[in-house]
Structure formats: structure tokens, C-alpha cells
Amino acid sequence: MNTENTTANEGFFGHPIGLRTLFLTEMWERMSYYGMRALLVLYMTGALTGFNPGLGWSSIEAQAIYGIYVGMVYFMVIPGGWLADNLLGHQKAVLYGAIIIALGHFTLALPLEQTFFLGLIFVVLGTGLLKGNISTIVGKLYREDDDRRESGYTIFYMAINIGSTLGFLVCSYLGEKIGWHWGFGAAGIGMTFGVIQFIKSKNLLGSAGAAPNPIEDSRRSKLVAWTKVSLVVMVTVIVGGLLGLYTVDARLFAEGFYYFLCFVAGTYFLYLYFFAGLNSAERKNLVLLALLFIGAAAFWSGFDQSASSLSIFARDYTDLSVSGYIIPIGWLQFANPIFVVI
Fold first, then answer.
1. What class, spelled out in words, does domain 18-214+308-341 have in CATH?
2. Are strands 321-322 and 325-326 parallel, antiparallel or unpaired?
């Protein structure tokens, strides 16, 4: 664990100077994520003709695709964390993830249906590498007994809300008032800013999250081999889908993915409870953790409706006129992050 920044270089609100690097990277990543997310369902359900044409898909199909996308974003944090722990290190995972996210947004900016899905895949993969690992590095900036860690995460949390506010303001305006792909492109530019500043200030992180966990060379070689095989399989599946070699019903896939996630989570908690050798106190804590897990899942399921069913409702049934100006639909979403910052 890196500790060189905890005492000598307290240059960011009394915290390790490396927190500034992570703060800005997270801010730009959240700007790109929430900015693009606000446009996604609106673009998919937009009319094929007229000003600012969309893809013309049904709201049911669009919301299913959106649900798959958001679910995959959360799910891919697991393999992203595994890669960082065992092969890449957290710093490289964050950098590679940020680059892939930017590539995804720029791919979305291309006005083609094939590039639309490819762009979503890039954003999912990049977010899986970046999201969990950047939070891990925050913790590694502090010693185990450093009381500032909790407030450091509070500062880091502000980056999420500042970035999402910027994304809603900028990307929603460009996407809805000028053209959808301008909004997607703006998200890519924002993430590019994050990549540049991370590269330029990565040295401020010191050794925090720089190296993967130490393991035997023979085991690491096996992990590398399995990772390469997995990548080949994943690329083959993606390319086959983009070339139209097979089709997927988005609604059925979304339902199946939901049951898959429930099965995996339930099996994992049951395994820990019965077979992990926990004592009675630890089992009670595990039950509490499971209840919190269910509550968090329910909360985020509702929260993410803001860019899905609630956006469609706002478009179709809400008066968006303010003093004669029709505000972008995405602007209705930035009240939450603004009040969090305040």
C-alpha cells in the first residue's frame, strides 16, 4: 500500500495530493457516463424523420436495451476488479478503462446502428475496468489507521455529482438541441480530458494501486492464458452479433440476465453462509450485508429509471417550457446531483 502521500504531500483539501488525480478522473468519467445515459433511450425511441432523427425503436425495446446496458455496467466491475487484482494493477486498469470508454463514446457519435451497439459495448467494458478500481485506489492513498479516509471518499463522491451535473447540462443540450451524436461526442471529449489529466498526473498516486497482487509466476501465466482465451471468445461473439450472424431478442435477454444476476448473487451468499467457515457472529453480519445488498439493488433499479421510463414520461407528458424556452429533457435529471453537492 502506498503511504508516501499521506503525510508529506497534503495538497488537496488536507488530503493526499493523489486524490486530486482521482477526483478529476472520476468527474470526467461520470460526466461522460451520465451525459450519454441521459440521451440513450431518447435517441433509441426518437422518430426516424424530422429534426434530430433517432432510431425509431419502440419504448419497450429501447428500455430493454437500456436495462441490459446498465446491468452490464454494474456486472463488469467484477471481472474488471479481478483483472486489476491479478494482472494489471489498479492504475493500469483505470487508464485502460478510461481510454476504452472514450473510444466507446466516439463510436456512438458515428450515425450508424452497428456502431451504436459497438459503442455501448466499449463503454460497458471500459467502465468495468475503471469504476471499481478507481475507488480502490482512493482507499490505498491512506494508511489503515488514517482517520481522513472516510472524508476522502466524501470528497471523491463530490466528483461523481459534479461530473454528472456537467454531463446532464452539456450532453443533453447538444444531443437534444443540435444532434444526438453531438451529445455522444461531447461525452467522448469529456472522457478524453479525464484520460489526459490522469496520464499527466498519475505520478501523484505514487505506488497506490500500481502493481497487481503478488502471485507465483506459474499461476500468473495460467491466468494470462485464460484471459486471452476469454478475450478471443468475447470478441468472436461481439463480431458475430455485429455482422448479423445471429440475433438477440432484447426483452428476453434482459429478463434472462435479470434471473442470472439473481441466481449468481443468491448462490454466492448461500455459499458464504454455509460453506465459508463463518462463525455465528459473522453469519449474522452476512445476513445484514445481504439485506443491504437487496436494498441497494432495489434503490439503483429505481434510480436508473430516471434515464429510461421517466425520461419517456417527461418527453410525452411534461410541459418543458420555461419562459417560452423548451428545456432539454435531460436537464430534469441534474437536480439530484446539484442538491447532493450543496
1. mainly alpha
2. antiparallel
